[in-house]
Every structure is written in C-alpha cells, then in structure tokens.
Design brief:
Length: 849
C-alpha cells in the first residue's frame, strides 16, 4: 500500500535530539518564504519503518539505505512544520531537514553536501523531478551536524515494490514511470549544469568494487562481526569481469543516483507520475548501468521463482525485469545490456552486502540509526552474497533482445504496418486486427517463456540425456494452448474439412475442437505469425507449428480419411505425439522423387515395406509415433504414378532407427534427423493414403504451404540476427569506437535490412498468391521465396556472426544454430537449383506466349 508522505512522522528520538531554538533561528534567516508571523514551530522525526521483509516473493527486499521518509539506516530526516499568520489566514508550511547521523560514520556515506549540490543543480536546470532545496548549513554548531532544508512533497511513496492494493494497470504505470524517471536522470548533461566535477566517470565499477571491498573489510574481522570468505570470492569474480565499457568516460557514464528504487520516489497524490526523486546521498558520476541494475534487484531476490509462481494476482501488472529494463533502455536511448548484466546485478548485490555489513558493525557498536532492526543486517549481508554467487552461476540472466512491452512491436516494418492499418485500413500487406492481436500475444510469449529457456533447452540437447524432452517444453505447450497460440498454421480450408470429419464424436467438446483447429488464418495471415516463431529454433514445436509435424498434419487434414484422422491426426493436433516424413534415400538423388527405391508391396490385407530412408527429421524424438513413408507400390506404372504414401507406426516391427545425422555438428536433439531401415515392415492396407499411385499428388500438396513456412521462419531468424547484431554493435568497442560507429558496419547493416525487407515482401506475396490463386498458380512466386529466404537469412546471420567475433561462431549465442538451419534449407527444402529451374521454366513459358 502507498503511504502518504505525511503519515511517516514520529517523535524525535533521544539520540537525535537537538536545539530546536537554534534551528528556528537559522531557518528564519535562511529559508525563503518562511512565515514571518510564526504561531507554532514543530519538529518531528520521520519514522524509521520496518523495511519490507525478505519474503518468498521476489518483489521485496530490505531497503539498505535511508530515504527521506525514513526506512533506512542512515541520514536522519525531520519534518519541520511552521504554522504562521498570513494575509488570508493561517498558513502551514512544511519543510524537510536532512542531517548527518551522530557518532562515527562510514567514509563518505553520509554526504549531505553532495545531496544538496545535486538537488540544487537538477531542480534549477533539468526536468528531473526533485524537491526544491532552500539552504545548506555546513556549520555543525547549530544542531550538532551539517544539514540542509528542502521542500516537503505532498504525495505517495510505495514502500513495497510488489505494490499491494493497486490495480494491475496502475502497477504497470508505476513501473513505467519509475523507468522513465531513471532514464530522465541518466540523460542529464552534467557538464552543462555544473555537476561535471562531482566525480570521475571512468573506471567507476572498478573503483566501486575496491571501495566496497575495503568498506567490508573495515566492518568485519578480528573483534568485529565475522567476515564471510565468500564475499572475497565475489569481489574476485567482479574484478575479473569488469565490463569494458567501464574503462572510459563514454556513453553510459554520467549522473548516478546510487540508491534508485521505487521507494525513493514520491508519486503524485492521485496520478502515477513521479514528483520527486529523493535520497541522493550516494549520488556521483559514473557507470549508470549500476543504477539500472540496482533498481531491478527486487526482481532478482528470489531467482528460483518463475514469473508465474511469484504471487499470481497479487503481482499481476508488475512487469518482468526485462520489460522494465526495456522501458528504461527505450527512454534512455541505451542498448540492451545483455552482455554485462550478470556483472551489474552481482555488483549491486555485492555493494548492498557491504553496506549491510557496515550497518551491522555500527549496530554492534551501538550507533546504527535503524535501532534494533539493524541487528539482522549481518545475516542479510550474507544472504546477498549467496544470491550474488548463485546469480553468477546462472547460464542465462536476460533475454538476448529487449522484449516488446505493452504490445509494442519490435521492428520498424511492423510498426509501420500497424500505423498504416490504424490510419488508413488498407495497403498491400497490412495485418488484420486479429493478426496484430495474435502477434502481440506471441511476441510476449516468446519473450516471457521461450527466449529465457533457450540456453537450458540447448544444454539438455548437448547432454547425455539429449534424446529426452525437457519438462518445460511440455508445460509451455499447455500454456500456448491456453493462450490460443496453438496450431495457428492450419489454413482455414483444411480446418473446415477437419471440422466436418471430426466434429463431436472424436473431439469431446466444440470448444476443444475449435482450439485444436487453429485460429482460421489464411497463409498470408500466418506469415506474420510464423515469422516470429522462426526467431528461435525451439519455438515452433511449442506452438505445435514445427516441421515436419505441420506438413504431416496437413497431409492428414487434406488426404486422410476419417479413421486415419482419428488415429493419427487428433493426437498430432493435441501435441501428444510427433511424426516424421520419410522420403529421402541415401542411394538415390532424392530431389527427384521419381528415383526413390523403397518398395511398398501388397500382401493380402497388409503392405510390406522394404528400404532405407535418411534425413527423416523428428524420428529421433521419443514422442515420434508416426512415419509417413513414401515408396513405390508399382515399379511399372507411369513415372509419377508409381509412388504411394503410407502411414507407418514408428514402433512397428522391422522399423529400425540406425543413427542420428548431424548438420554441421548439430544433431538437433531431441528431434533429430534419422537414418531408418524398413525391413519387411507389415502395415494394414487401410494405412495407405488416398490410394495406390497417389504419392506424387500428395507430395505436391504437402510441399506447398508447408514449405513456405520455412521461408516465413527464415525471415524471423534473420530478424533475430539483425537484432543481435545491432545490440552487439552498439555495446562493443573496437579501436576507440563502438562497432556501430565504424563506417564499414553501417553500410553492411543497411544492406542486410534492405535484403530482409525485400525477402519478407516476397514471402508474404507468395503466401497471398497461395491463398488467392492456389498452389499451382503461385508456384513461381513460392519458388522465388524458397530461393530468396535461406540465402538472405544466411547473409544476415553471417554478418551478425562476424559482428560478434568468435562468440558468433560459438554456441553461446543462437546465431550459429540459426545459420546451420538456414544453410540446410538450401537443400532440405529442395535444392536451390530445383526452384531456380521452376522460375526459369515459367519465365521462358511467358516469353513463348
Ligand atoms: C536438415 C535436413 C532435414 C531433412 N529432413 C527431411 C525429412 O524430414 N524427410 C525427408 O524425406 N528428407 C529430408 N531431408 C532431405 C532433403 O529433402 C534432401 O536432401 C533433398 O531433397 C535433396 O536430396 P539429396 O540429398 O538426395 O540430393 P540430390 O538429389 O542428390 O541433389 C544433390 C545436388 O544436385 C543438384 N541438383 C539437384 N537437382 C538439380 C537440378 N534440377 N538442376 C541442377 N542441379 C540439381 C543440387 O546442387 C543438389 O543439391 C532433409 C535434409 C536436411 C539437410
């Protein structure tokens, strides 16, 4: 719950009492506008409150430092109330006084003068909301220590960062205002407002690590509280991981608040707008990302809790850490800090641990201003150290790109389409409202659930349990179903057919039926959606939109009879099983499918299958139950009537998985690409699809829309490459400049964008033609998209890898895997030459007309 600033006052504690008469004399002489006819003058101490407890919720952590309104352990703060007589009656003027604490204090930790200087400069020259300051009294003889007096702000302070009692949308507004205020503070040009000499900007983290390590050593050991050796491990790690950007006074350095968090902000009494940033005693110049990381610590405090489990409705509306960070980066014009985020968070925890250890030491000596509460700070310091060390060990601490918060779209092409659609409602490729809504939902799902899991999925796929399924994959599938992001690939006409065949008797309820049959999107509409899934190699299967299942489901939807659909299509639509498509053979050139040799021979009520297939994608997956096998039922029929397709139970006797094949060393576990032998595999005659000799016909149907999906995903993969490339270029310095400032990079980047947009338009055009003209008439444009998409994606991803240097070739980023997948699609989706042949043939035909 928010507290009114006026709620937070109490009686002046004995240890903090001073000569109020001397103060009044000083105030009368130095505070502008102080009532001349004074009726009453009172001094109340701003109460030190119990900080939010460290709870299982990750949204609260104990405040390590004071705020103006008192939950801290540092500068005592007082509310002065002057009741006077004015022309229009009684006046009540309120002021706030901040002073140094009495007794021995930590080096430079209570810099009243600094607070005053910063507040004065910001108030006079910037739009950063701060209370107005009236006077600084450096003379300790007045009230025992130096102090300053500032304006009292009537407003609200949110003490608990989980914002209990607020509606979800207002919680979001509070966080957005917080991020924007921090950005405003970081945008201040300190040189132009006289704060240029407040501190050194370069080597801030290095100096801070050394300083807080020193401070920790001063507060612990020998006759002081016990020293935790893990603190030195942490300091050692930090010293080895100081970000390169810290070494110079470049972009990203400037004014640092030093204690920026929601409860150091005064919000407007009724609006969700910050009217004052308070508690500036740790402000200085330096690396501003430290402020940013510190302001997100409440997201980190329980790093084992997922977004879902952190409080349900109570935290609804609170953004994820990445969303808050994206708001900040956007408002501050800063690159996404993925590369060094681990350092900044670990450093923030380290610093708090050192501060807490200092408070605890002071408590043992009897002069901590937090009273008895300070007795716990020693334990809390150790907890911060543990959390920091635990955090350092995490493989993935931030998505590798900023999320699109509040439905904002990530790339300018889409932003443009959206504004076009809302302003004019027309245009060649303007996504419909339905698509825009689905796409926003999908973008959020990717950011919340897929990107954060990538590295864990990848680790499992490299371990000796590589051919098992990560439990999170199944959980996310259920979540995708609930969110209506399931089977979106199903074209409207196929869904209509399935609805007729499957209605009621197979799928229990109409609602469930509908959920399994997608959202009724056209191929063009799906193009906008599928592209986003293509940004992660792990995403498509989470939404039941991954190859080869989509192609196989399409075959069953179009060509399967009712029984075949019941047995195989329904579990595939449910996502309960997976499937493979076995056409390619090692012994023959399979881009020409008339070459295949696998035999499907009828014997009574069975077909007997003999042959070897390879590159059957998905067949290694432990959930794979169905193989659609293409073979020959009649070796003497006309060339295109010899082939048939048959449904084979992957566990039927005689089906032998021989080995997984590798693509540039990636085996794509847990789905894999298998070499399989079929040795006298007996399959009931009912399993033949459409009838003997219809295999080629089915292949044409399967390879139409299904293969365009690859192109859509490739556009998404290239988009991901662009984003990673730009982030890296903005954040990494070579030879004195960021990569983004190097001329050669700029033209390469622009060329990538040009190619990407051209290919995206081609893919959308192909999808549109598929909808309007059908598979056959659209084949020229589809072929163009198939040639263009992988080649474009390869160039963009190659450039992205180049910008990443050696890291780009490693598996530390997704780039090399995306590149390997794109490269395989110049063959796996039919070799380029075959598509080029189609395009050229059509071109020549046109010339002959
Ligand atoms: C990662 C991956 C996944 C795959 N998944 C599957 C799957 O699930 N199911 C499946 O059945 N298959 C799958 N394949 C196999 C893929 O479909 C075939 O590799 C592809 O059809 C080419 O067949 P091929 O390898 O026999 O090459 P070939 O037919 O031997 O062709 C070799 C080369 O000959 C040249 N060429 C071919 N045709 C022409 C032409 N008309 N003009 C000029 N040059 C030409 C091209 O350079 C071509 O690359 C996959 C392949 C990969 C790499």
């Amino acid at each position: 719950m928010a507290r009114q600033t006026s709620d937070l006052q109490g009686r002046v504690q004995a240890a903090h009492q001073f000569d109020e008469g001397a103060l009044l004399r000083y105030v009368r002489a130095n505070v502008e506008g102080f009532p001349s006819k004074l009726l009453k003058f009172t001094v109340a101490q701003v109460r030190e409150r119990q900080p939010p407890l460290m709870r299982s919720s990750c949204l609260s952590f104990p405040a390590p430092h004071p705020t103006l309104f008192g939950h801290g352990q540092s500068n005592p703060t007082f509310l002065l109330e002057a009741v006077g007589e004015g022309r229009s009656g009684t006046l009540v003027n309120r002021y706030v006084l901040r002073k140094k604490p009495p007794g021995e204090i930590l080096q430079s930790a209570h810099a009243i003068e600094r607070e005053f200087q910063v507040l004065k400069a910001l108030g006079a020259h910037t739009d950063v909301p701060v209370p107005k300051v009236f006077c600084l009294c450096p003379d300790p003889s007045i009230i025992g220590t130096p102090f300053y007096i500032m304006e009292y702000l009537e407003g609200r302070i949110f003490l608990d960062s989980s914002l209990p009692g607020l509606a979800p949308e207002t919680r979001r507004a509070v966080y957005e205002a917080t991020a924007k205020t921090l950005a405003a503070l970081h945008r201040v040009n300190v040189d132009s407002i006289g704060l240029g000499k407040l501190g050194r900007r370069e080597n801030y983290c290095k100096r801070q690590v050394e300083r807080w390590e020193r401070q920790y050593l001063l507060s612990t050991g020998e006759e002081k509280p016990v020293r935790n050796p893990r603190m030195q491990d942490l300091a050692g790690w930090l010293k080895q991981h100081i970000p390169l950007e810290d070494y110079s006074a470049s972009a990203g350095t400037g004014l640092v608040h030093g204690d920026f968090r929601i409860d150091n902000l005064v919000f407007h009494p009724t609006e969700y707008e910050v009217i004052g940033v308070i508690d500036w005693e740790l402000s200085t110049l330096g690396n501003q990302m430290c402020d940013v990381a510190y302001s997100t610590l409440h997201f980190i405090m329980d790093i084992t809790l997922s977004a879902e489990s952190r409080g349900g409705l109570q935290t609804e509306g609170i953004p994820l850490q990445a969303e808050y960070l994206a708001d900040y980066c956007k408002a501050a014009g800063r690159p996404w800090p993925m590369e060094n985020w681990k350092f900044y968070i670990a450093f923030s925890l380290f610093r708090i641990a050192a501060i807490y250890a200092g408070v605890y030491h002071r408590w043992t000596m009897g002069n901590a201003s937090g009273g008895e509460r300070a007795q716990h700070t020693g334990k809390q310091a150790n907890r911060f150290i543990d959390i920091a060390l635990e955090f350092i060990r995490l493989a993935h601490v931030l998505p590798d790109q900023p999320p699109s918060v509040s439905g904002r779209l990530q790339n300018h092409f889409h932003e443009e389409s959206r504004s076009q659609s809302s302003s004019k409602g027309s245009g060649n490729f303007v996504p419909t409202q339905k698509v825009l809504e689905l796409r926003d939902k999908l973008l959020l799902f990717m950011e919340k659930h897929i990107y954060p899991m990538e590295s864990e999925f990848y680790q499992l796929a490299q371990s000796n349990r590589r051919w098992t399924i990560h439990p999170e994959e199944e959980r996310l599938k259920e979540l995708a179903k609930k969110e209506g992001l399931w089977n979106l690939w199903i074209p409207l006409d196929s869904a209509v057919r399935a609805r007729k065949l499957l209605l009621d008797n197979t799928l229990k309820t109409a609602a469930r039926n509908e959920r399994l049959l997608g959202a009724g999107l056209s191929n063009l509409e799906y193009g906008y959606i599928c592209e986003i899934m293509g940004r992660s190699v792990w995403a498509p299967q989470i939404f039941n939109c991954g190859p080869p299942d989509t192609g196989n489901m399409e075959v069953l939807l179009r060509y399967g009879n009712k029984e075949q659909q019941k047995e195989w299509l329904v579990p595939l639509l449910e996502g309960n099983i997976r499937s493979g498509f076995a056409m390619t053979e090692p012994r023959v050139a399979s881009s020409d499918a008339t070459n295949i040799e696998c035999s499907i021979r009828r014997e009574g009520n069975f077909y007997v299958i003999n042959g070897t297939k390879w590159w059957t994608s998905g067949a290694m997956d432990p959930r794979c139950r169905l193989l659609i096998v293409m073979g020959k039922t009649d070796f003497n029929a006309p060339r295109h009537k010899q082939q048939s397709m048959i449904l084979v139970d992957a566990e039927a006797p005689g089906v032998l998985i021989r080995r997984p094949l590798l693509v540039f060393g990636f085996d794509d576990a847990p789905h894999g690409h298998a070499e399989i032998s079929f040795d006298n595999v007996r399959v009931p005659v009912e399993n033949i699809l459409l009838g003997e000799g219809r295999g080629f016909e089915i292949a044409q149907g399967r390879l139409g829309p299904g293969r365009l999906h690859h192109c859509m995903r490739l556009v998404g993969a290239a988009e991901r490459g662009m984003q990673l490339m730009v982030q890296r270029a903005l954040g990494r310095r070579v030879f004195g400049k960021t990569i983004a400032e190097q001329g050669s990079f700029l033209s390469d980047l622009a060329k990538c964008r040009v190619e990407l947009e051209a290919t995206r338009l081609l893919v959308l055009e192909a999808a549109d033609q598929l909808d309007r003209l059908g598979n056959k008439k659209a084949r020229g444009t589809i072929a163009m998209a198939k040639v263009s998409a992988p080649n474009m994606a390869l160039r963009v991803l190659d450039m992205a890898m180049q910008v990443h240097g050696a890291a780009g070739l490693s598996s530390d980023t997704v780039l090399s895997h995306l590149w390997a997948t794109a490269r395989s699609l110049r063959i796996a989706d039919g070799p380029d030459e075959v598509h080029l042949g189609t395009i050229a043939k059509l071109e020549l035909q046109r010339a002959k007309l």
